[in-house]
Structure formats: C-alpha cells, structure tokens
Amino acid sequence: MNRVLFVCTGNFYRSRFAEAVFNHHAEQEGLDWHAYSRGLAIHLADGDISHYTHDALTARGIARHRTGPTRVQIADTDLASGARVIALDRTEHWPMMQRQFAAFADKIEYWEVADIPFSRPDDALPAIEKRVLALIEELKTSRVD
C-alpha cells in the first residue's frame, strides 16, 4: 500500500483533519493509499485532537478512527516511508523542516494552509479538504489498473 504523510506543527488540527479526510475518501474510491500524520513540534499542543477537527469530521460524517488515536512527533523514518509527504503550510513548516530534517526540507510538498490565528478554522479546514480531494482525484487518474 502507498502512503501519504501529512505534516503540521502539533499533529493536533490540520494534519489530523487531512489524514482522516484522505483515508475516508481513499477507501470509498478503492485506492491503494493510506494517510498518516505527524507533527514537527507536538509539545505545542495539548490533548489528542483539536475540537475544530473533531467537529469538522463529525459534520462530514467521517469517523474519528480515520486518524490516529493521538499526536505523534515526526521522525526520519516517517519522512523516508511516505510516498508523498505534504506539509500543510510552507511559511510555517519549511523553516522547521530546515532545522530538524534538512535533507528532506526541499524534497517534500508544501501547501499554503496557515494555522490559527492566521487562518480561521472555517476557512482552513475547507481549504485542506479541497486539496485532499484534488489529491485523491490525481491518485485515481494516475493509478494503473
């Protein structure tokens, strides 16, 4: 199975939402892909998952088990094992990647979905969902049956 890794700061809000939305739709489409998520600085968040993420998943009928049970700090092995690695915000995450994982910083994909307070959840989460659905479409058209 192919894997996509979503990366954000706390592995609490944006990456967890992207992971759950991706896994939900990938299964519905019968894709041989699975998402997981990690954080670059999980000590900056408290709790297992943001209430914004939980509420947005519930509103979309996406089960909570589509994302991991708790936050996880990223490691070299995570970056090496993802067929696609996507950090949720270039402005925020590229410098963090440079400091922590310089060898991977220029090899991963960056989206532009800012964290609170720079982007409101009712703007950020639909933007992530739109990008995830576009990624699902891309993977559907690129698969070899």
Structural description of this entry:
The chain is of the alpha/beta class and 145 residues long. 47% of the residues lie in helices and 14% in strands. The chain contains six helices and four strands. It has helices at residues 14-29, 51-59, 76-81, 90-100, 102-105, 121-142; strands spanning 2-8, 33-39, 84-87, 109-110. It has a four-stranded parallel beta sheet, sandwiched between helices. Helix 1 links the parallel strand 1 (2-8) and strand 2. Helix 1 runs parallel beside helix 2 and helix 1 packs parallel to helix 6 (121-142). The radius of gyration is 14 Å and the shape is globular. The model has no long low-confidence stretch (mean pLDDT 94).
- SSE series: EHEHHEHHEH
> What share of the residues lie within helices?
40-55%
Mean pLDDT: 94
Strand fraction equals 5-15%
Q: How is the biggest beta sheet arranged?
A: 4 strands, parallel
Keywords:
6 helices; 14% strand; alpha/beta; globular
Q: Can you summarize this structure?
A:
By secondary structure, the chain is of the alpha/beta class.
Topology summary:
Blueprint: E1 2-8, H1 14-29, E2 33-39, H2 51-59, H3 76-81, E3 84-87, H4 90-100, H5 102-105, E4 109-110, H6 121-142
Parallel strand pairs: 1-2, 1-3, 3-4
Helix pairs in contact: 1-2, 1-6
